[in-house]
């Protein structure tokens, strides 16, 4: 199939779109393409996810099953763990994880395995797009040589592009369709077909000159957040020592109509992106004899915040003649941010681990995460405790780590003996001031 034939298939929405990785990124893309009447074939190595999707069931809180089941019923969506079917799609979008190893280095095995599976079934006329976040050079240095080892030539026989995902789970203000998408191809024809494909589903597509530019664009976005979060977190600790409320300062600074974008302090960084992606760049930078000092410093500060939160819990207990040892501490919210069901890399885990090591007995409440699964670094074997008056009377302290919207924090402040607030949700609760500690 030539470029023009593939383009025609895309423009007529006759191209079969394969999406690899049915997670937080892949699943919203599946739905978006289905909504635009494309035929979709989803791939995942996790046969439980495949089985759930085949029954029209979602496993993500942010996506109701009804948004999947209608496309399964109509036959628009098929899902499989059979990777020999990779020769079927005309375009393949790769949305697999890009975590870090124990040594904080890029763990590229998911991209490598996926690329090898695609290589084994690559046929003429296919468009392959990497969506996973990675360092500049991944598309051209890691994926391209493997695919060309088949003897097929990029830009002539198959097409290769990079388009970073900007999904923000739980964000109701911006849908997948509304978030502009940056796209770059390895060759001009690769760019043309990838641009055409996304243009069918996303309101604004932003072409850039090379995959490396697109790869670094995504990292810049996340590093910008990581550095600014670290800055406010550091200032929060200083302001606390000076007896100044950092939240009031940020609110006041935000009235400046230009040159200031507010970032808010919290219990530390969390999620699959901000704590991880910047290190993909610092790792790659070493190849260029370059040390990314801002990234390192932001990482150091953000990693230290759970320790600061624990020191504030200790202070609060101390005021009441208690210690962390033998105290019963309730963690409110273990998701990495509000209103999502994802606890990967959540600062709650680091806080719980530090408290446990200091001899506290830990409970948690998070209706989004009924059971704590095992994580890269932690295993707790805990279930979410029902949030009742009785529970709040039984504990020594409650710590607001995630500010889920459905919780009545007034009621929590009324009944908890001591409340540590890392999110400023108790801002207007003057009547409970004596038992609230901002952290
Ligand atoms: N979660 C976010 O908010 C977000 C936002 C922007 C970008 N990203 C990036 O998108 C990528 C995917 O992240 P995610 O949050 O969707 O991850 P995820 O863990 O939710 O989903 C990844 C899926 O890929 C599957 N998978 C793993 N190895 C596979 C393989 N070899 N073949 C097929 N499927 C495989 C897993 O079973 C899982 O279902 C990462 O690079 C991430 O950095 C994530």
Describe the structure in your own words.
The structure is a single chain. This protein has helices at residues 3-11, 26-35, 47-54, 66-74, 109-121, 138-148, 188-199, 211-242, 246-253, 277-285, 293-319, 347-357, 389-394, 409-415; strands spanning 16-20, 39-43, 77-80, 91-94, 127-130, 159-162, 181-185, 205-207, 328-332, 361-365, 397-400, 419-421, 436-438. With 439 residues, it is an alpha/beta fold. The protein has an 8-stranded mixed β-sheet, sandwiched between helices. It has a 5-stranded parallel β-sheet with strand order 10-9-11-12-13, covered by helices on one side. β4, α5 (109-121) and β5 form a beta-alpha-beta unit. The longest helix is centred in the middle third of the chain and has 32 residues, at 211-242. It is elongated. The mean pLDDT is 96. The site of nicotinamide-adenine-dinucleotide has 27 residues, from α5. Nicotinamide-adenine-dinucleotide (NAD) binds next to α5.
What labels describe this entry?
single chain; 439 residues; alpha/beta; five-stranded parallel sheet; 14 helices; 12% strand; binds nicotinamide-adenine-dinucleotide
Order of strands in the sheet with most strands: 3-2-1-4-5-6-7-8
Query: In angstroms, what separates the terminal alpha carbons?
Result: 60 Å
Q: Bound compounds, please?
A: nicotinamide-adenine-dinucleotide
- Radius of gyration over C-alpha positions, nearest whole angstrom: 24 Å
Can you give me a brief rundown of this structure?
With 439 residues, the protein is α/β, with parallel strands linked by helices. The chain contains 14 helices and 13 strands. Helix 1 packs parallel to helix 7, helix 8 runs parallel beside helix 11 and helix 11 packs across helix 12.
